[in-house]
Amino acid sequence: MADVNRGNRPLSPHLQIYRLPLTGKLSILHRITGVGMTLGAIMVVWRLIAGAISPEASAVADAWLTSWLGNLIWLGCLWALMYHACNGIRHLIWDVGHGFDLEVTEKANYAVLGGSVVLTLLTLLAVR
Questions:
Q1: How confident is the model at residue 53 (pLDDT cuts 50, 70, 90)?
Q2: Which of 50, 59, 68, 89 lies at a 20 to 30 A Cα distance from 28?
Q3: Neighbour count for residue 53 (Cβ, 10 Å)
């Protein structure tokens, strides 16, 4: 039977009404970081090709990639890699059927975020 009150409410929730849960936001961020790591790969390829072309091209690429903007992009790519890895591990745990309880999922959300930051900082300390 048709719902007679359908005209009094929206047909489906939209972003002004529906609040996306943290798990949903992290799912979107997982996809964004996967695509964003392509930027880091392009920077590595640019540096390798510039080194193969000439010393001048290598110097230009090196100057740009070690500038403050280049370092900021490297930092973002490093965090994206660590986040993507931590979230990938969580997805592997989900694939075997564990961690679907609401309380465990919420803790895992924060563990992925915190773990990615900690791993990024540890990597920076190890490299410097």
A1: very high
A2: 68
A3: 12
* Signed CA dihedral, 86, 35, 38, 127: sign only: negative
In this prediction, residue 38 carries a pLDDT of 92
Q: What is the mean pLDDT of residues 38-43?
A: 92
Q: What are the C-alpha distances in Å from 3 to residues 9, 59, 60?
A: 11, 69, 66
Does this model's pTM top 0.70? My answer is yes
If pLDDT is split at 50, 70 and 90, which confidence band does 19 have?
confident
Residues 6+ apart with CB under 8 A from 90: 99, 108, 111, 112
Q: Is domain 30-127 in CATH 1.20.810.10, yes or no?
A: no
Buried b (16+ CB within 10 A) or exposed e, 108-117: bbeebbebbe
Question: Is the separation of the CB atoms in 84 and 37 below 8 Å?
Answer: yes
Q: Parse the chain into domains and list their residue ranges.
A: 30-127
- Take residue 6 and report the two structure tokens written for it: 């359908």
Mean per-residue pLDDT of the chain: 90
